[in-house]
Specification:
The protein is of the alpha/beta class and about 425 residues long. Helix content is about 30%, strand content about 25%. The protein folds into 2 domains: about 1-80 and about 105-180 and about 275-355, FAD/NAD(P)-binding domain; about 185-275, D-Amino Acid Oxidase, Chain A, domain 2 (2-Layer Sandwich). It has 11 helices and 21 strands. The chain is globular, with a radius of gyration of 21 Å. Bound molecules: flavin-adenine dinucleotide.
């Protein structure tokens, strides 16, 4: 197989690492590799800027990574810093969650703009970005991997980082997919314009009694616009197939309409997409292929957030290749990558999944929100935990304890 690949490199692109998918995981991986002096070639089937169905919410972990990667928020026009979030319990009780002032602990940014800005950083770092190129086949040899695209292009590299999202083509091509898998969450998103109610600047999350486990949200994206949506867990009280109908009803509930304001109207049709959140249960590698982001089912089982997890897994995959050297045998690289994911994400995911069970029923959700509301201290600290100021299972993993772990500044801080 190796010879077969070597024989066919005429007229093809030779690189160190091929990255399929230029979303958060792929762009973060590519810039990390390029900054370390490796040749990184990203392929994406879309032309950027491209939309990604998402809530556009950025936690502090995500923001710290964007800060480290060198993003200037001014390059993202819809960027909005959030200083306080509001949770609304199944009984209608509201809890305000204040976020610290030292730096940014939460922001919202349209994915079309954010992903394009992060991809630009990867390009500036030296990564080769090839858009409009859908990966359609791949072959692995002893020391290389060859990818072919829908336009007839061939790219050969030492490693392949699969960052191609929930329906990962690379996972299918390597035969490592889970039969019938459709993600843990399914979420709808719709932009609204003409927003004049509190939703124009507040981040709101409603735990509605009739679709737990799940929640509806409204996140401000500036210019009197909001990203509004809801997500439910598969296997809960609602069938995913009924979500479109349910969305029409939810988005016209009086308290949600009141938050948006009387003149708010949808900017386009609602969009739905699954969220994969079972990182410990899917293969993270296959030979010279490393899976990252949604392709590794890395989203948080509690909230469905996956942007920070995509940046982190992309960077860890790149780091494993850099540290081992692009030409080293794949078991070492895969071991290093898997050990980073295992030690940094597995316990947090278990903790999230556990808490999710408590939020599955009205009583659990009501009690949890009541506990959070008990004092300014509980509200402040819950906010920091919810927005991933520190890892979900930090208290249960002493090896990650460090000085200032509960008092660090946010991103882009003073
Ligand atoms: C409705 C909804 C709301 C969400 N809200 C939030 C939120 O508020 N905050 C948060 O942190 N997370 C949120 N998430 C999760 C988050 O969107 C994902 O976890 C994140 O986008 C994963 O990034 P990724 O780089 O792994 O994949 P993606 O962002 O999906 O990028 C994959 C890329 O691969 C490309 N691609 C796919 N197949 C191929 C192929 N064959 N060849 C070439 N290119 C290919 C695609 O064009 C795409 O650009 C939400 C998800 C949904 C569905």
């Amino acid at each position: 197989m190796a010879d077969d690949i070597a024989d066919r490199t005429d007229g093809t692109i030779e690189t160190d690492v091929v990255i399929v998918g230029a979303g958060p995981a792929g762009a973060a991986a590519a810039m990390t590799l390029a900054r370390a002096g490796l040749r990184a070639t990203i392929l994406d089937k879309a032309i950027f800027p491209r939309d990604k169905f998402c809530g556009d919410g950025l936690t502090v972990w995500t923001l710290r990574q964007l800060d480290e990667m060198g993003l200037d928020p001014a390059t993202v026009p819809s960027w909005r810093v959030v200083k306080q979030a509001v949770l609304i319990s199944p009984s209608g009780r509201e809890v305000l969650l204040p976020l610290p002032e030292r730096g940014t602990f939460c922001a919202v940014a349209r994915r079309s703009e954010l992903d394009a800005a992060v991809l630009d950083i990867a390009r500036e770092a030296g990564a080769e970005v090839l858009t409009g190129q859908e990966c359609t086949s791949l072959a692995q040899g002893d020391d290389r991997v060859r990818v072919a695209t829908s336009t007839g292009m061939t790219v050969v590299g030492r490693y392949l980082i699969a960052a191609d999202g929930m329906w990962s083509t690379v996972r299918k091509l390597t035969g490592t997919g889970i039969e019938g898998y459709r993600g843990e969450w399914h979420a709808f998103r719709q932009y609204f314009e003409g927003v004049t109610g509190r939703a124009q600047d507040e981040m709101l999350a409603w735990f509605e009694p009739d679709f737990l486990p799940g929640y509806a949200w409204s996140f401000p994206v500036g210019n009197n616009e909001a990203n509004v949506g809801f997500g439910i867990m598969r296997g809960g009280s609602w069938r995913v197939g009924a979500m479109r109908e349910l969305w029409a009803e939810i988005s016209s509930r009086p308290h949600i309409r009141a938050a948006l304001g009387p003149g708010a109207a949808p900017e386009g049709p609602p969009r739905a997409w699954p969220i994969p959140a079972r990182v410990g249960e899917v293969p993270l590698s296959c030979g010279r292929v490393l899976f990252t982001g949604d392709a590794a089912a890395a989203a948080d089982p509690l909230t469905g957030e996956g942007i920070g997890q995509a940046y982190a897994t992309g960077r860890w995959a790149a780091d494993a290749i850099i540290r081992c050297g692009a030409s080293v045998g794949e078991p070492m690289v895969a071991d290093r990558y898997e050990s980073s994911v295992r030690s940094s994400l597995f316990r947090d995911h278990q903790m999230s999944a556990l808490l999710n069970r408590a939020l599955s029923h009205r009583k659990g959700a009501r009690t949890a929100i009541w506990l959070v509301s008990l004092s300014p201290w509980t509200r402040r600290n819950f906010a920091r935990w919810l927005f991933e100021d520190y890892p979900r299972a930090m208290l249960a993993t002493p090896r990650r304890w460090h000085h200032g772990m509960f008092s660090g500044p946010g991103a882009f801080g003073p």
